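Standup notes, structure subgroup. Blocker cleared on the nicotinamide-adenine-dinucleotide input:
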Amino acid sequence: MSKNISRKQFLIKTGSALALSSFGFPNIIIPKRKEKLGVALVGLGRYSTGRLAPGLKLTEHCELRGIVTGSPEKIPVWQEEHGIPDNNVYNYETMHEVANNDDIDIIYVVTPPGLHAEHSIIGAEAGKHVWCEKPMAMDEEECRAIIDAANKNRVQLTVGYRMQHEPNTQTIIKYGREETYGAITGLETGAGYSGAHRDPDDWRRNPDLGGGALYDMGVYPINAARYATGMEPVAVRGKLWSEREEMYSDVDEFTDFEMEFANGLIAKGETSFGKSSNYLNVDAENGWYRLEPMQSYSGVQGETSDGTELPPDPDHQQARQMDNDALAIKENKEPIVPGEDGLADIRIVKAIMESSRRGEEWIQL
Ligand code: NAD
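Run returned:
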C-alpha cells in the first residue's frame, strides 16, 4: 500500500465499508445519496410545457415526478409523456395533499404571478422546497409571506431567474464584483418583445394576475442592473404607458425607468410588449462589456472592449438552473437566487409604478 494512502482511505477506495465497521472504525462511510429529487410542476402552461418539462429530462439532480393542474384534459397527455403515476397528479384544491407524498421534494410554481404567493405558501406548508417563477409575487407583502412560509417550514426557496445561472451572465457579474474594467460608470439594459396578447382572458393583460410588461419582462432589466452592479438602488423613477389601448388598457405595454445607486450611478432600463429589446451594456472606467441577447433561452452572448468574446453556452438553460437549485437543496447550501432577490425586484417594480403615477418623480427606496 502506498505510504500516501492510509488504511482507512484504502478501505474506502476498495469499497470495503463493511470491512471498515468490522475493523471497528467508529464512523461507517455511507455513500452520498445520488438519487434525483422529485419536482412537481404547478401550472402546465407554455413555460412548463416548452422549457421546464423538457429541461427536467436533462437534469442530473432532479426529475419531473408530479403535476398540479386545473385542466383535466392535460393529465393523460402529461402522464404518458413523463410517466407520472396517478398518485402524483393534483389539482389546485388537492395540492396541499402533496404533504403526504414522499416522491415529491420540490414544488415549482409556474402559474400567473398573481397566484405565486398562494401556491408557493401551500407548497412550503406541505413541507416541500419551493421554486417560484418570476416575477416572485404582486407586492412586497406577498413576497415576504412566501419567504416567511419557507423559513417557518425549513424548506428552500428560490426564484426562477434563469439568467443568474447562465455562464456569460455569471462572467459579467464577476466583472462587476472584481471591477475587471474598473468601477461601473454607466449601465443600460432592456428586455421586451414585439408581441400581442389578443385573448382578453390572457393573464398578461390582467393587472390582478401580474400582467403588464413591467412585471412580466421588466424584472429582467431590473434584476440585471442589480446583479451587474452588485448594488441596490437608492431611488427609482419611471413611466408606464400603452399605445395599443385595445389590448393594454389595464396594464402597461411599455415602461422606461431609471435606477439611481448610492455612488451616483444611474442605470437606464426599458421593457415592452410592443418593441423588441434584449441587451445589457455596461460602461466602466477602463472599458466596456455587453451581452446581447442578454435574456434569451439560448444564445446569450457578449463581448468586451478588449476583444474578449463571450460565446453562447450550448447547454439547456433551465436544466442548468434546476440542477443548480436541486444541488443547493441536496447540499443544504444557499441557492443562487434566494427569495430576497425576488422581493428586491418587486419593491422596485412597485416604486416605478408609483413614480409613473406621480409624473415620473424619483421615489426613494
Ligand atoms: P401560461 O398562461 O402559458 O400558463 C399559465 C398556467 O397557469 C396555465 O396552465 C393556466 O391554466 C394556469 N392557471 C392556473 N390558474 C390560473 C388562473 N386563475 N388564470 C390563468 N391561468 C391559470 O403562462 P406562462 O407563460 O407559462 O407563465 C407562467 C409563469 O411562468 C409566469 O409567472 C411567468 O412569468 C413565468 N415565465 C417565466 C419564464 C422564464 O423565462 N423564467 C418564461 C415564461 C414564463
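Discussed briefly. The two ends are 64 Å apart (CA to CA).
Next: hand off to the docking folks.
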